[in-house]
Amino acid sequence: MKYASEFRDPKAARALLAAIAGRADTIGATKENPIHIMEICGGHTHSIFRYGLDKLVHEGIEFIHGPGCPVCVLPRSRVDEAIEIARRPGVILTTFGDAMRVPGTRLSLLQAKAAGADVRMVYSPLDALALARRLPDREVVFFGLGFETTTPSTALAIQQAAREGLGNFSVFCNHITVPEPIRALLGDPDMVLHGFIGPGHVSMVIGVHPYDFIAQDFGKPIVVAGFEPTDLLQSVLMVLDQIAEGRAEVENQYARVVPEHGNPVSLAAIADVYERRPSFAWRGLGEIDASGLRVRRAYAAFDAEVKFGIGYGATPEPEPEGCACGAVMTGRMKPTACPQFGKGCTPDMPLGALMVSSEGACAAYWQYGGMRAAG
C-alpha cells in the first residue's frame, strides 16, 4: 500500500456499493430478512461506523459486532488482580492506555493509580523492559493482554529479559486467541450468522488457515479483511459472492499484508514462551476452552502470576447490574439497546469495558453514531 487514500477513493467505494447491492438483491436479502455478517474485530467495527458503511450498504446487509476487542473481554477479576499486583511495595505496573480505564469489581487501574499505586501507561512491552533496566531496585510488571496481534511482542520481551537476566521484569499474561470464541459462537444454536469478516492484523501473525474450521465445519464463508473502507466493502462483496455461489471458503482480501501461513518469527516466539491454558473466562462470554495463553514453566521467573502468587480463577463473575456487554459482544444486542448506554455508562463514567476501549462497539456507537452530541 503506497497511500491510504487509494483505499478511501469515493469512486471505488461507489462501485463496490453498487456491486454489493446487486449481489444482495440476487440472493434475496431484505431489511426484513437480512444477511448477517459478523465483523470479528473491534477495529473493523470502528471503521464501519467512522466511514458510515453501515448506512451506505444495501439495507439487506446487517453488521453483527463480534468479540474481537481484547480489552473488552478481560474479566473484572483479572483487573482486580492487576490492581493487587500494582499495590505491592516496590512494584511498577505498566500497560496500554485502554486497559487503565477498564473497570474491575471496585476500581480501574487509573483509579488505583489516583489512590497511590504506581501504574504507568506504555506503548509496548519494550518500554516496560527499558524501565526495568533503569530502575533495577523496582519490580516492573507488564500487564500483557491482547489477541495474537500483540502476543509476539510480549513473548519477544520475555525472551530478551531472559537473555539479559533482567530479574525485576515480569508479565501478567492475559493474552487470548481469536478462533476459539468464534467456534463457541458458531456452536450456539440461537446465533444467526451467514458469514464473517476476519481480523487482518491477527492474520498477519497466524495466517488464514486457523479459520478453516469456520468454512469446513460450519459451512460459513469468512474473508480476512483490511481496515480501510474499500477493504471492508470488498470483503462484504466477497462474502456475498460466496453465499450466492453456494461456497464456504476462507479468502484473503488483505493479501497485501497478510501471508497465507502467517509470520514464522512471531509464531516461533509465541510457541517458545507460551502454552495454552485449559480454559479462560471471557468477560460477558463465560469460560472458553483453550482460549487463553500462559507463560511456560521455562520462563517462570518472568511470570507475574508465579512471582506474586496470583492464582488464576477461571470462573467468570457476573457483569454489573444492567450492563449488557456480553450480549453486545456476541452480537445479540446493539449497544443502543443496552439500558445503560449513554445514561449509566458513558466514556467519562464507564460501566462496561465496551465503552472504554478504542475497539469497543459501544465506544464506536458513541463516537460515530451521534450519541456524543445527543448526550
Which properties best describe this structure?
single chain; 375 residues; alpha/beta; Rossmann fold; 3 domains; four-stranded parallel β-sheet; 38% helix
What does this structure look like?
The structure is a single chain. With 375 residues, the chain is of the alpha/beta class. The protein has three domains: 10-70 and 182-252, Rossmann fold, CATH 3.40.50; 76-178 and 261-307, Rossmann fold; 325-368, no CATH class. It is 38% helix and 17% strand. The strands form four sheets. It has a five-stranded parallel β-sheet. A four-stranded parallel β-sheet has the order 4-3-5-6, sandwiched between helices. Helix 1 runs parallel beside helix 12 and helix 2 packs parallel to helix 16 (361-368). The model has no long low-confidence stretch (mean pLDDT 91).
Number of helices: 17
CATH superfamily of the largest domain: HypD, alpha/beta domain 2
CATH topology title of the largest domain? Rossmann fold
CATH architecture grouping of the largest domain: 3-Layer(aba) Sandwich
CATH level 1 class label of the largest domain? Alpha Beta
Main sheet: which strands, in order across?
Answer: 2-1-7-8-9
Query: Helicity, in percent?
Result: 25-40%
Order of helices and strands: HEHHEHEHHEHEHEHEHHEHEHEEEEHHHH
What would the average pLDDT be, to the nearest integer?
A: 91
Envelope shape: globular
SSE diagram, text form:
Elements lengths: L9 H17 L8 E7 H9 L2 H4 L4 E8 L7 H11 L4 E5 L1 H4 L8 H6 L4 E3 L3 H10 L4 E8 L4 H14 L4 E7 L3 H8 L8 E5 H7 L5 H7 L3 E4 L3 H16 L5 E3 L11 H10 E3 L2 E4 L3 E4 L3 E3 L8 H4 L17 H5 L31 H8 L2 H4 L1
Parallel strand pairs: 1-2, 1-7, 3-4, 3-5, 5-6, 7-8, 8-9
Antiparallel strand pairs: 10-13, 11-12
Helix pairs in contact: 1-12, 2-16, 8-13
